[in-house]
Model the fold of this input.
Amino acid sequence: MNNRTKIFLLGVVVLWGWMSCNSRKQQAQSESPRYVAPAPVRTPPSESDRWSNSSNTPEDTGIPASSDESAPEKMFGSLKWSQVEEVMQIAQGYIGSPYKYGGTTRAGFDCSGLMYTSFKQIGVDLPHQSAEIALMGTKVKKKDLEPGCLVFFKTTSANKITHVGLVVEGSGESARFVHSSTSKGVRIDQVDGYYWKDRFVKAVIL
Done:
């Protein structure tokens, strides 16, 4: 075998070895596992995030919405019930004051003077005369009396209203009213009491 043949055969062996090695390397690369990045962990959104990122409102999801609006105040005729409660407390605060014709102070009241002074303190101006007060408001039947009603009586032989009081307790004929009596000053009596029963004329709600 001459030298040219030896060199040729040597080249074939080297080339075959290189090709075989390269083939094994590619096979190893193809068979080795590829790295896969882990999926990002998703944190559940908070309650505030759900509302801020959504167009839904509590009403849309059936959740009742809170409201700062308070219920309208109860009315008693033209007055708020809170005013009625206040004027009843004011009038009763004068219990024990003496009777004084034309009086409008704690030093002495007549019946309409007591109503005039008490109502004035809640911002309501009344005439200083029982008969004139009786022309105001809405008439109420005796059986329907309740706290807050004004009650009127005839206490003389004259055919006119001469006395007024404010119901502060009870209801119907058992209602009790605060007033200024000519004999005992500011006190509470029952509408259907011995003296007042037959002298009752009417009642109104302002």
Observations:
- The beta strands are 75-76, 79-80, 104-105, 108-109, 138-140, 150-153, 163-169, 176-181, 185-190, 200-205.
